[in-house]
Amino acid sequence: MPSSPFITRSTSVSAIMFKVLLALVPGIALYVWFYGPAILVSLALASVTALATEAVMLKLRNRPIKPFLSDNSALLTAWLLALSIPPLAPWWLVVVGTMFAISIAKHLYGGLGSNPFNPAMIGYAVLIISFPLHMTHWLSPLGLGQAEIGFADQLRYIFSGALPPGLTLDAVTMATPLDTLKTQLHMNRPMQEITAMPIYGHLAGHGSEMVAVGFLLGSVYLFANRIITWHQPVAFLGTLFLTAEIFHMVDSGHYATPMFHWFSGAAMLGAFFILTDPITSPTTPKGKLIFAAGAGFLTYIIRVFGGFPDGVAFATLLMNICVPLIDAYTQPKVFGHKAGKK
Q: How far from each other are the two terminal CA atoms of the chain, in whole angstroms?
């Protein structure tokens, strides 16, 4: 039996954020393996922009720069945003989205701990609404596209918009598995025929399903270090699974399986890295369950019936709005307080 004292040293914000960044590495590594190293350029651009914007905003707010700049929160926002947008996105798109996320979505509300909305998801929402065409050019998984370009050509396109002679952007990019599914269903093609297309793998999209597995593996590290709790991931994935299963049972020829929705898009990234943000999610266990369940349901509705191929970002932001209300109605009663008495 361990003996007292049972007081443990508190973990700093920078240490927590650094561990979350480490947990993203398996997913990033698989991203590079299946799609090439272009995503590393986006991550680097977003990181530099986030740190520079953070420093400028801290200076304008007369706050000490070094302590806040080293807490790794800006880097985490940068990485989550970079992983949510196409890796061949032009450099200015990454810069604009990251600057907006840090300056407006974070510091306009008072900085870390005061922002009601997830900054990375705000940055994503601004980009996909303002520049929808640029946000649809996703790299084809290696071996599946009409043509492939090396890292040097990827760099040239990101910074100058130029591709090798004879190549078009459509030859090296394709729609995401979620977007392809929605488009093909609108053409009245049966589900079985759609999922037999080369873009699809065993569970969802070829390559993208393995990236999702990478984020799932990273979550094990977060749980082992008690960075996150089970509430948001279980409620989000459980609700997404249940909703998808109900529709799939009603019409399996038109609605994808629950596993497809689990391993498509940003479901795993959202479950373990976005919805678990302690600042923009409820503080009570019951509140976390309600918050994440709502996000899971909205994600499915937006994916299947909405105008965007994925719904994690918008579902997160919509539930962020509800956090104060959820917290107000899920706070435990004060010890010794009797209902009806003041």
A: 44
For 153-219, give the secondary structure using H, E and C. Answer: HHHHHHHHCCCCCCCCHHHHEECCHHHHHHHHHHCCCCHHHHCCCCCECCCCECCHHHHHHHHHHHH
| Tokens (6 digits) for 229 | 């709790």
User: Which of 243, 237, 246, 244 shows the shortest CA–CA distance to 267?
Assistant: 237
**HEC-encoded secondary structure of 79-137:** HHHHCCCCCCCCHHHHHHHHHHHHHCCCHHHCCCCCCCCCHHHHHHHHHHHHCCCHHHC
pLDDT of 181 reads 87
Question: Which comes out higher in pLDDT, residue 309 or 313?
Answer: 313
Q: Give the chain's length.
A: 342
pLDDT-derived band at 5 (thresholds 50, 70, 90) equals low
Phi and psi for 311 in degrees, rounded to 5? -125, 5
Which pLDDT tens digit goes with each residue over 72-121?
Answer: 999 999 999 999 999 999 999 999 999 999 999 999 998 888 899 999 99
The string of pLDDT tens digits covering residues 30-53 is 999 999 999 999 999 999 999 999
Cis preceding-peptide flag for 5 (omega within 30 of 0) = yes
Q: Which two tokens stand for residue 174?
A: 């394709």
Other C-beta atoms within 10 Å of 8: how many? 6
Spans of all domains in the chain: 12-173, 175-331
User: Dmax over Cα atoms in the chain, in whole Å?
Assistant: 78
By three-state DSSP, how is residue 138 classified?
strand
CA 17 to chain centre: 15
Q: What is the pTM of this model?
A: 0.91
Strands 173-174 and 138-139, by their bridges, are antiparallel
Can you tell me whether residue 342 is helix, strand or coil? coil
Distance CA 5, CA 1 (A): 12
Angle between helices 285-305 and 177-186 (to 10 degrees): 50
Residue 87: both structure tokens together:
């890796």
